[in-house]
Amino acid sequence: MTQPATEKAKTNRPFRGDHVGSFLRPERLKKARAQRENGEITNEDLRKIEDEEIIKLIAEQKAAGPKAVSDGEFRRKWWHFDFLAGFDGVELYDAEQGLQFHGKQTKALGIKVTGKIRFNGHYMIDHFKFLRDNAGDAVAKFTIPSPNMLLFRATFEEGVYETEEELFTDLITAYQEVIAALYDEGCRYLQLDDTSWASFFSEEGRATIRAKGKEPSKAAALCARAINEAIAERPADLLVTMHICRGNFQSTYFSSGGYDAMSEIIFGGLAVDGLFLEFDDERSGGFEPLRHINRPDLTVVLGLITSKFGELEDPERVKERIAEAAAYVPLNQLCLSPQCGFASTEEGNLLTAEQQWEKVRHVVNIAHDVWADA
C-alpha cells in the first residue's frame, strides 16, 4: 500500500551532497562503442567493457564522497531516447536534423510511436541490476526520463492513437509497470529527468508550445498529471526525485528562464519527494519562486555547481547562496548538487575527468560544511 508523501519524508530524502547521475564517458568506452558500430567488435565485447568501466566509475564515485552511485548512463547514447525506445510501440529513427542547442546541434536522431505503448520487460532493468550488484554499501541511484519526454519529443504514426487520453493512459501504465519492476529488483532511489518544464519558463518557449497547437497552461497541467500518475503507486520506501533541466549538450543549453511562470504547479503540485533544480547561472532566475513550496517533506536539491565548465565555484559564495535559498525553504529541506549531469549524451561536456571529480568533491565538501547530517 502506498504511504502518503508526508510520512515518507521522515526517513527518505536525497543526500545533502548529491549528483544528477551522468558522467563523462572514458575514452576506452567511446572507442569500444565506435568499434561496435563499425562491426569490429561484438555486443558481448562492448558489454564487457561497459561492465568494467561502470565498476571503475562506482569506485570513483565512492572515493569522491557521494552516498549514492549511478552507472553514469555509460550504456546509453542519450539520456532519454535510449530508455523510451525500450517500451513496445516506441522506436528510434534517423531524423532530418538534430536538436538545436545554443551554438551546437545534436546528432540527428529521434523517437516515434509506431504502435500501442506497452511495458513488456525493459532492457534497462538489467542495467539497474548490474549497478545494484556492484554498488556495495552505497545507494544505487537509477535515472530515467520522465514520461513527459515522450509526450514532448516523440513523433506519432497516424492512426496509432485516436485520442490524447488513450495515449496518456498507455504511457502512464507502462511507466507504472517499469517503476514497479525496478523496485522489485531493489531500486530504492529513482530519478526522473525532465526538460519539458523549461519550455514553459520563457515567452519564447511558450510560443513554441502554442505553435504546436497546445495551450501552455493545459500542457503544463498534463505534464504534472503525467508525473503524479506515473509514481502514484510507488511503494513507501521508494525515493522518487525529478531533475528539471534546461538542456545540457557539450556544455551548451537549450532554454532559459526562471521558475516563476511554473512555480505554483512545480513547487505546489508535484508528488515527487525531491526536486533537482538548476541555479548555476542567471538563466535560472532567483530563489523567490521557492516560496510556493507548501510541503515540509519536499526536498530541494540546489544545482549551484555547474557541470558545464571545469572552474570551481567559490565555496563561500555557494554557502551564501544556500543561505539565500533558506530564506524561502528551511535549510533542512535543502541539499546541494551540480546543476545537471556531466554527460547527458555520450559526447559529454567540455571539461576533463579530473575536473569532473573535483566538482563532485566540491559538492560533498561544501555539503559537509553546511549540514551536520551530510
Structure description:
InterPro entries: Met_Synth_C/arc (IPR002629), UROD/MetE-like_sf (IPR038071). Pfam families: Meth_synt_2. One of its GO terms (biological process) is methylation. It comes from Planococcus lenghuensis. This is 5-methyltetrahydropteroyltriglutamate--homocysteine methyltransferase. This protein has 374 residues and is an alpha/beta fold. The chain has one domain: Alpha-Beta Barrel (TIM Barrel), CATH 3.20.20. It is 37% helix and 15% strand. It has 12 helices and 10 strands. The strands form 2 sheets. The protein has a 7-stranded parallel β-sheet. A 3-stranded mixed β-sheet has the order 2-3-5. Helix 2 packs antiparallel against helix 3. It is globular and about 55 Å long. It starts with a helix and ends with a helix. The N terminus is likely disordered.
